[in-house]
Structures are given as C-alpha cells and as structure tokens.
Structures
1.
Amino acid sequence: MPTVRLVVASTLLALAACGPDNGRHVPGEFTPDAYDSDQDDDGVVNESDNCPGKANPDQSDVDGDHIGDACDDDSDNDGVIDMSDNCKLIPNTDQSDLDGDQQGDVCDDDDDNDSVPDATDNCSTVPNTDQADADNNMVGNVCQGVLNPLLSGKIPGGHLYTVGLATAGRYTDVVVASAPLQVMGLPADAQIIHAWLHWAVIGTTTPTVNLNGVPVTGKILGITPDTCWSIGINTMYRADVTSMITGNGTYTITGLPSTLSGPDSQGISLSVIYRDKNEPDTNFIEIKDGAYYQQGVPITTVLDKVPHPAGYKTAKVTHFVADAQPANDTLTIDGIPYGGNDAFPGNVGAMWDVRVDDIMPNFPPGDTDTMVTSTVTASGDCVAPLFVSVEVTNIGTVVILKSNETQHAAPTIAPPATPVTPVVRRPGRNGVYLP
C-alpha cells in the first residue's frame, strides 16, 4: 500500500526535523540548553557572577558591595547615584568641585586648573601658575592674606558641626594644658564625611598637636602680622582628622603652647561635615579658610555660587576668629550687621571665637546662585579670621539612594530543580499517533 508508506515516511521526516539536533527549542519542552549557566556570556557562571544580567568579565566591584559595577547604581557607595556623581569610583558625598570642571575634587589632581598638580601646588585651590612664594613658607602669595576655598558641595543630608576652645594663657593668666572638644547632637548613625582641626599660634610655630593622645600634623594655611601683642606673627594650620572622628564624644587636644607671656596659642576648633542618612534634603556647604588680618581695614570674604531656591529651609554662616576678646570689632554679612560693636568677644574663651549666625531673615530666596559676603572690621580689637562657611539646607538637586532602596542587580537564574523528561509519541498507521 504505497499511500500508507508515503504518509508514514512523511511523518518520520517531520519528527526528525523537530528533534533536538536542529538547535531549535519548542516552548514548554525541556532541552539540555534550556538553562543557560552563563546568562550574559561573559565567561563567568551565573552563580559566581556579581552582575549576571550584564556582561562584565572583569567582575569589577569598586565599593566591595558584591554588586558588580556594571549593575551598581552607586559604584563607590557614597550615597550619590552614578548618574549624578561627579566622581563615580571614589567616594565623595560632598560632590565638591571647586574649579567647576564637572570633575569632583577627589578625582581631580588640579583643583584650580592652573596646570600645576595639587600635590606640588603651593596654593591648590586658587590659580597661581607662577607658584610665587615671597616668604618661602610654602604658601603661595595669592593664598596669603585671604581665605581660600576648601570645599563647596551639595551633600545629601549634609550638615556642618563646629566646636572650639581658647587655649591662650596670656590674657587670663591661666595656662591651658588641654582643650576637650565635645561633639554632641550628631545622629547616632551619622556618616562622617570630613573633619578638620583648625588652630592658630602667635610668636611661634606649632605644626603638630595631639588628638586624644595621637599626634596630628597640620598644613600651614598662612601667616598674619602680630595682632597687637608685640609677640610675633600668627600662624594658622589645618589638619584632616576625618578618620579619627567617629561621632559624638570628647576629643581632647594637647600640645599647643599656652603661656602667661611670650609665644602663645590662640585656640583650636573642630569642624565636622556629616550626613544624616534619614534626612531627605540635599544641603549646600561652602568653606573658605586661611590667615587674614588687617588692623582697622575691612576683612572681606566672599562665598560664591550659593544656592538659595524657593523653599530652602535654613541658612547659617560660621566664623572661626583668632585673638578675639572684649573690644570693638564688627561683622556684617551682605551688609547687615551681626553682633553689635563686639562681634567677637572670645565666646569660647579669651582669644578664640566660634560664631554661628542665622542669616535666613536677611537672605531671600532666588532663582540663581548668589554670593554671601562676610566683612570683619577690627577697629578697637585685633582679630584674625581663619575660617568662614555657609550652609543652606533643602536646595534639592542631588539624586541619592534612599536608605530603604536597594541596588539593581539582575536576578540569578537557577536551573530547574528536576528536569522534565520529554514524552515522544510514536506514529501508528495512517499517521495517527499512538500513546
């Protein structure tokens, strides 16, 4: 019966065409390659791949969070997602970019764009290609007699905390052997982003102090003339102590000179920039520091590119001032007087001031960034500012990962627990399949 043989032969050919050898997969039918052990074809099996949904043969994971950089929204784990981060692979929650080149300062080896690398630049945040240094104190001329940029950044949940104490002995006739700086009120889970010590001495040099018994060496910020004591020049220092500040507690400073006459110290302050991880607002902080004194002449510091959009919540300005005592001196911020005729009386002890002013009542919102201008005039006093900052909260422009958000890694594909054996039915007569 040739017709029957023809039908059977045609059916067998059809079955052969649909078999596993042709590389095709019938939906719902299990074949040996239905589970792909290397989903992204990068040579790393899914179970070991830190980004199984996207090829990353190098398995790079800069922040060590077990999520490959190719799948990680925040590759450096600094709280700022990569799409907004100006330094994606080095943590810089502050996003400071002093020269405005869209490259975060921690990623930028020339923060003032003067073609002199920061490592050898004697004024690393103010352009000075000539590197002129008339007094050979390793501080460029353009950084002398002025406060210079230290940081300018928009920080998720960021705030500035400051504390200070006077350490001079000459005014009170009491030698100050130690300065216990008490940090209080930081959130328990605060992330310490930056911490610096600032101090000043008169008639001597003291580059190294002790913080809780550990030596800390500062960078010289500059010098000023004698502040009406006939002792000698003032020298200002800054030391980065971020790794030593862990949160609330007492941080005791020793090693500063404190005498009843002759060379002496002025005081010391601790400034801490921290992030409150539970705060949704993005806040702006700008700091300038240095060494600045002119008797009877207005001492002006301009904090620039300060955002103050509609809906901002707070605005404050902070000053550290050396040689502060009860005498006639004034402070204006944007032309508005603060502190009357003795703005810097030595509010943390004779010869040192840590002054914080709420400027919000005189700081109306605006659509564009603005300047905040501080002017200190030492008329009857001989004060020397060395630190000025501004903080404006809720300026809301940095996209961050909220604390309850998770990173987005491709899910791991697991093989079927028990492979299903395919059922193949055999053809019977006239092309009818048999069970």
2.
Amino acid sequence: MNGKREYGDYQTPEYFSLDVCQYLKRERQLTPSVIIEPTCGVGSFIKSSLIFDASEIIGIEINPEYCKTCKENIADSRVRILNTDFFSFNLKSLIKGKDQLLIVGNPPWVNNSTLSGFGSDNIPEKKNFKNLKGIDAITGASNFDICEYIILQLIDALHGTNSTIAMLCKTSVARNVFIEMKRTDTNLTSCDILEFNTKKVFGVSASACLLVITLSAEKTSADICNVYSFDRPSEVVSSFGYVNGTFYSDLSKNSPDFSGNCCFEWRQGVKHDCSKVMELSVEGTHFVKGLRESVDIEKNYVFPLVKSSMFKSPIISSFSKYVLVTQKKSTGKHIPHSDGFSQNMELFNLTQRAILKEEEFYLQKRTRFFYVWNRRLFLCKI
C-alpha cells in the first residue's frame, strides 16, 4: 500500500500555505484567538499560522514521523502538536469554551471507496453522516470524499461559534459542502471559493480551491457562494447558490429557466460503482467493456445509458454508452430470486459468466450494491 495515496498525502508547499494565511489576515482581516490544523502533516500551515497573534496553535496529525518533524522545525511555545487520528478524535472537547477560531489546512484529497479498495484502515466509520433517507442514505454510505467528510465534521463541531474554516479542497467538494450547509440550515455569514492552479502548487491536474466559510453564532445564512481567482481575490469570477429556494450552478450566466410545476416527481438511475465492467460501448457488432475487453452477452439486460454530464445540452439526441442492469426493480431487500433473474439464470449463461468473471473486481470495490451468493452475483437497480 502506497502510504502517500493511502493518506491522500500531498503536503502543501510552505510558500503557498503562507500565501493562504496572508490572504486570511490581510484580505479577510481575521484575528483568531485559536488556530487548529486538523491534518497538519509536516506543519506547513502550522508554521505559516505564526503570522497571526493567536494565543494557541494546535496541529492534529496521525503520522508520528510528521509530528516529530513539526516539533523539531517549529519552536514556538504557542504550538501544540497532537499525534492522533482525526476520525476518532473528540474535536468538540478541544474547542469547548473557545471562540473566534480559525480552522485552516489541506485535508486528504481521496475518497472512501478508493481507500477501501486499498485495504486501508485510515478511514472513518462508514455511516450515514449526512442523515439522508431512503435510497439517498444507501448511496451516500457507499462512498464519500474524505476531505468533504472532514470539513462537514468541523462545521458540526463549530456549530454556534463565530469561527472561520479555510480549507484547500477540490472544487466539487466545496460545492457539496455549501449545498449541505444549506440543507442542514447551518448558520453562516459567507461562503467563498478561491480557485488556484493545482498544477503549479501540487503538480497535479485538478479543479481545486481555497474554501473559506465564516460561521456565526447568530441565526443567519448566506444563499450565494462567490467564486474568485486566488491571484485576484477581489474580482468575482462567477457565483452559484439559491434563488427563491432553487439551486443554480452558475448565477453569472443568463440560462433558460426550465423550472415549473410538474404533476409528478420521478427519478431513475443506476448505482453500480464499477463502470469499467458495467458500462459498455459498441464497436462494430460487439459490446466492449471499459477494460477494453470485448464481451459476449445477451441483450436482455443491456440498456442505453445517458450520463448526467450529458444534461448540459437542452436536447439529447444520441448516446454512445450502454449499461448492464440485472434487475427490473428494487424491493429494498437484497434477496436473490426477488425479480426472476436468478430463477432464469440458465437462460442467460453468457451474462452470468461475464458478471462472475469480474467477481474479484467487485469485491475490491467493497460496494453494498454487489452480492455474492452461492457463487452468483446480483446487482441492485435503483
């Protein structure tokens, strides 16, 4: 297991952590009394945080070698490094009685499913931490972003305080965090995104940002999240958020209004978490898996696939993908023989063999949507 990948370990260059702290001090005019870095690594943000006149600076880190490095390189009586696991640490007890906190840092950019596939134990307990209901709870529990989980846990711990959270994260995570704060009616005065060049800072190609959340002890809420460039923090590039209770992904565009009254609500989709096997394309007269292998299966369980990314177009006139779905309905109980697929498996021997061939691949994903029973694997359709 590669330790760097397991811990989402991409240490922040010291020059950039200093840029972030200087922005928070000069542009945001923050004067925190206590600063906490929940995943401090070798201490870039801890060292950069010394520019603030805080009475206490606390770093939390699971890696004992990193803790040793922090203590050796940062000689300041205000700094305290805790060698512990954030996922099991009682953060609320640490911040009890404190206000005007600044939580700053760079949590791991990795998701739960990836770590589970590695066999890593550096993951939080898998649970419905967003308190979702029904099928949302099932899909939400199967996979989540570790960085998003950490930020949401921080928000929960800091509820009712006048504190600021400033985290480097993927832009998609920042959007999800904003939406979740609105869903849970979190008290906040502002939520802003400052996009930066990840290739320059970390040497990776990704859409990422500095997410800055200003929480409040008062009952208040911000409906709009503004997006800036980190290099030009005073110029709004775009914005997203809620207008009259409806979420708009880009408020800067004059997009057509497709909202209206509908006589019924509907939803459909497939959660398989195994696209390399279950998503197919057509080459000539054959189906081809994402693994670039030709697969010979019956067409009874192959359906056209329209992915969410295609809905950027007002009219969808074609598609290029197919998906293998082995159930006609979901009863909410994952019981073999519930829809006739297993009863008539002998009629679809090619499909059965194609599925079971990749059984090990499914098990590596550790998803709740794949079940092995008497050497036969069944999917749950949503």
3.
Amino acid sequence: MRKPFRTAILALTVVGFLFVQAAVPDTLAYKVYREASGDYFNVLGWMAGRLAAEVSGQQAGRDRAAKAEDPENGSRLVRRYVELNSEIAAATPRAGSQFPPAERERLDKLTRERDDLEPQAQAVLRQQMEEVLREDGFESSFAGRIGIWPPPLFAFAALPRILVVSPRDRIRTETTLALQPGLTWPEAEKIEERVSRLNLSALVVPIGGLGAYPPMIPRSTSLEFLAQTIPHEWMHNYLTFHPLGFRYSLQMETDYRMVTINESTASIVGEEVGDRILSKYYGYPHREHPKPPASSKGPRPQSPPEENDFAKRMRAIRLKVDDYLAKRQIGEAERYMAEEQAKLLADGYDVRKLNQAYFAFYGSYATSPGFTNPLGDAVAELRYRSPSLKSFVDRIGKIRGSADLARVLSARAGH
C-alpha cells in the first residue's frame, strides 16, 4: 500500500468519526448541525477530493518538479504567487460597487495566472518546509520508509468559517462546525441567533488555517503568514499521533487547558520553522529561537501601544466575566460583554460580537490578547529549556493532562 494511500485512509477515518458525531441525534453536535445544516461545509468531502489527487499522483509530479527546481527560481515563483494574491485582492470590487468590463477582464487574467501557478507554489513551499523539518530532526521511520510523518501536505483554498459553541454558564468550546466560505456576516448572525435558542453561546469566526488533512491554507497576501501558518497546521497533524493532540484532533478534548497547550505548541513550531524558511529561502534576517518566555526576567520586545491597550482591555473584560460566571450571574455577564463590545467598536476595534464563545475560541491561543491563562508561558518556558525544537515537541507531545506540563517543567529544572 503506497504511503499517500495509507495517509488518505487515516485522515478520512479521523474526519469520518467527526462526521458520525454530527449525525447522531441527541448529541449537542447534531443539535447545532441541525440549526446550521443549510450552510454546512463538508470538510470530509473536501478532504476526499484533495487526497484523491494525492493518491493519483497529480500533486506528486509537481512535488518532484519542485525538488528539481533551482531554489532561487522556486522562491521567486512563490513570491510571484503571493504578489498575485495581493493584486487580485486590490482588483476585487467591494460588494455593490461598479465593475467595468475592462477591470473584470484584468481580474480574470490575474486569477488565471494565480491558479496556474498555485500547484507549483504549493510544491515549492512543501519542499522548503520538509527540508527545514528534516534539519530540525523530524525525520523518522514509518512503515519501513524514512521521511517526515505525516507527510507535510497542505492545500491553498478558500477557508470555511467556523461556528464556535460554548455553554453560557462557563467559557469552554463545546463543539465547532465548519460553515461555507462565502457565508456573509448577516447570514452568520442568523445562525448564531438560532443556536443561541438552545441556551448556548455561539459565534461564527474567520480562521487563518484549518488543520484537516491536508490542512487548508488561505491564499494569503503575506509570505510571512504562509511560512508560519503551514507548519503550524502541520504540527496539529503531527500531534494527532501523540497523547497531547489525539483527542483534540477528534474534537473530543473538553479541557480548555489542553487545547491551549496544543495551540501554543503549534504556534511555537509554526513561528520557528516559518522563520527558518524565510531566512533560508527568502533572504529574511535570521531570528534567534527559542525566545525567552514572557515570565522570564530581562527586557522583552514591546508591542505597539494600540495592541497593548486592546490586550489590557480584553484582559480586564475577561476577568470581570469570569467573576460574574463564577457567581452564576450569567445575565449580568452577557449584558456587561454587550456594553464593552459597543465601547470597543466606538474606539475603532473590530469586535463584531463579544460573548462566551468569543473567549472560548480566542482563549485557545496563548498569543491572543486579553486572556488570563498562564499555560502559554509554561509552554514557552519548556521550549526555552529544551535543547532543540524536536526535543521540545517530543516532551510536550507526551502530555496527557494539563498537570503533566508542570511535572515536565519541574523535571527539566532539576537537570
């Protein structure tokens, strides 16, 4: 059995399990799905199509071409792909605006050029990431073959929006559902309203990538974003085969602390591998890693003042909301969040809705502003104490509960 085929079967099995969850009546996932079924995005179907292309060798031939490609030519090709994304974004008219035929023709021409270039750009970026991962020690033996496991596949695609659902009496991601990429915000608000009638907090959010297999990566206008997001999403695939990520990949992880550890780990890997790709292939300045965690002594780079202000305000809001919910004052918490959201909008911060689901989703990312979870610093501390990125991932991948992280740090401190 060829490796792409084995990979396809495994990935479809995992996502098939999620589909079955959503199809079982009486489960929360099914009740939420029923409220949004008309706008449901079939991740399983998308994966099946992408993996079929991998198995048939459509992408394998392009990958071989990327390996034979001169590195400088490959990097120029990727840069041109990113430039085309920027030109397409600039040429795309706003909703309701006039679109003269000449401008439409220009947009169509740019889109055709981008689409023709896209498979090659994917192949080049895959090869570049695979080489950096190999240098970092991620190569291993699997089923008698030496290589990177799982294979570092990804696909550029229009990303779905994600419906995040939290209980009202606490902040926790209870379930999520992929929705159509073209969903408008008025349509999203109608779905949120229907789900909220189930006595739940709901929020539809845009995402920067989707850790399916292969991961879905947006057609970004930023090379830096692509270089870091692709390995970030691959790390979620990697952790599926380790205790830390198995339950999370199946959307069975109910401990928000484990979700935070998982996302923090993927963010560290994405940043380090992405910076290596940028410096090795695109001439970016070398950045030192690992970075000292925020809790360590010594000078730290300062965020822009407006980012600090937003972070402080969000932290204050979150603390107040936590206090309300701890006292079971759910209505007071929701009124307070609505009032603060209106103030944030008035001050120029684009926060469409502020509720329990908002904090449940963005609280998973330790680098996001406004959150009080110290686990992000603990993950960064473990990376700082580890001799390599691979040794860090090996240690944190074995964690089965959030308490394990403290034990691993204590063990490292004793060495």
4.
Amino acid sequence: MSYNSIWTYLWDVLDEGIDTVVEDVGEIAGCNDISLAVTYHSVKCYLPHNPKRKIYFGEDGVTYFRPNMGLYRDLLIKPRVSNLVEQQDEDVLEKLIERAQAAGLTVSAWFIALHNTPLGQAHPECVIRNVYGDPYFFAPCPSNPDVVEYYSTLVKDLGDQYDLNMVQVESPGFAKFTHECHHEKTGIPIRSTEEVLLSLCFCRSCRKRAEALGIDVANLQQKVRKRLSAANDGFGSTEAEGALNAGPTGFWADEEFREYVKMRTESVNQFIGEMRKQLRSDLPLYVLHEGRPYGAWVSGQDLGKLAGVAEGVLTTCYGQDAEQASRIIRDARAVIGQGGPLMAGHHAIYPLCKGPEDLAKRVRVTTDQGADGHVFYNYGLMPRRNMAWIRNALCKQQG
C-alpha cells in the first residue's frame, strides 16, 4: 500500500474534533496517514469548514506537542510550547495517534525546522547573517552548533514520546532572502542573482567552517558585495530563474563561491545527519524539499546526498500544472536515484489545483515518474469537497 497523507494543523484537530478529522482523512479523502504540524511558524489561516472559527492566527515558532523539558535543561535554546497545547488536559497528539491507529491510519510529524523568528530574536547569534552582517531573525543557521543541538534534541524528543509513522523535516537548509512575510518591501526586482547572493550566510559559524577549509571569506564577501552593488544601482539582475538549475558553477564561475556553496551543503547534510542520529532508529526521517531539484543548492541541499542521510525525500509540486509536476518528480528521481524513497507533495486547493481531474492527473503523472506516495495540502484550508477530489485521484491512480 502506498503512503497517502494530508498535512494538518492542531487547531483543526481541536476545533473539528479528533474523530471527525480521522474520518475525513480516512473515509472522505481515502488517505492512510495524517501529517500533523508539530512545530510551526506564524500564519493567518482562512478555514472554510471549521465549525468554531473561520480565521486563525497561529503562534510563531512554537511546538504543538508537549516536550520533555528535562532534555533541554542544559541547552541554550528552549522550546516554546503553543498555548493550544498548554490549555489541554490531555496530550492531543497522543490521542490523535490512538484514534487514528484504531481506524487503520497512522500519524506522521510535520516538523518545521529552520524557520523561527522568536528563536532568532532571542538568540541573534544563532541566525543567518548576510554579506553586510544583517541578521535574518526568521532563519536559524544550520552551521550553528546550538541550533543543531536544539533541533536534533527536539526530533529525539518526538520520537521517544510518540508512536509516529515518520518525521517530515521541512526547511532544514539555509533560508532564502525572500521570506514572504514581515510585509517585505524592496525597491528593485529580486531575481536569481539577488536571491542567491542575499541568501548567503556569513555568520560566525559559517565563516569559521569556511576558513577551516581554506576559503578566503573576506575576499568572497568583497566580490559578493560588488556584484550586488551592480544590481542595486541598476534595475536588478537579468538572469532567468533557469540559471539556478545550472548549479553553482553555472550561476557564477567563481572558485571561492563554488567552495563556499559546497561548505553550505556539507553543513546542511551534517545538520540533517545529527537529527537522524538522535531520532529513534526505527522511525523514518524524510526531508521535505521545495520542488526545484536542480536548484536545491541555493539552500544548501543536495538531494542525492540527502537520500543517503535520511530515509527519503518529499518533493513539493505546488502551484504547477501536471506537466511541470511531472518534470519536478522526474528530476528528483534522477537526482536521488531509483532506489531512494520519494514522495510528491500536492496542493489540493483551487485555483492552484483546478479541480478533481487536474488533481487526478497530477497524482498519475508523478506516480509514473517515480513518486512512491503523495501528501496533500491542507486539511483545514481546503473546502471539505476537495477531500473527495483526493479520494478520486487516489482511486484512479490505483485503478
């Protein structure tokens, strides 16, 4: 049986009720797993079928499970627990797992990693700093030892406490400059050059790692600033987005830049590797990757190498038509190889998904290109009718 799941928030489980969510996911949508957000960033949600509210403002940088606080006693960074969790007399995640298993379903942990503004504001020494030294408070740096220790402990905590099916780690790499929040304002177009160069981290931890490899970090910073200045003084860069698919050398044929990108990739691999080491050995770890397999180097990810660190890769096909979704999974399969587990993430929300036939085509073509399972976005955000779209898509794919 293939793995089919729906990404879900805790407030949906509390407002709809555990039994309703389990029934919706299993009976109406035809899935066999619920992927619950166990950590999350700030969000404003419109909830079309929620019986108690239509708008919910999610807390920023909190856990949606009860951590074992003793594990964090000697750590610099401590978990911030959601008020939703603190207000409950029972452990909702534990109850959800029990009810899901009784109905023949499993529960997976949807784990948002390096996307946490309160953490960054409390510990500015732990975040990405751009070439000018400016902190990105929303972006903990995967090279920072305290960040690695905190997130690997958090994953261990999850695995030790709960009978989960898998852990899906989202945002395990270097965050991009464009963050789509904080009412971002720019006076020039942010194209591929600006995005990549402004996303490079030159925090103390990254500089230390690079200098240990013999990279002249000061010289690289000078070249990055010079290239950004040319864009800032004009109308932005002219490179097409496709330039990112050519890899770091195709983007910029500079040896120090190439070596710095390689250092970033090793840092992310080590970060994910430490989470894998701390997580219970029988609990699979999947890396959730934004759907651009050949451009993953921008965030320090190498899907081919990650497939050897984690158990599998979950690649999103958001906002694409079926043909583009097919190419994304084809490219991801080519990068990770035929043996590595690969799942596809789909929007099941109009207009990003046009309807039941569109979703069915996406599931079919991504399966044909090597996807072993599918995860759909998002239980609380989609109208209830869209859950039938998912069942229809899975039934057609299964014949």
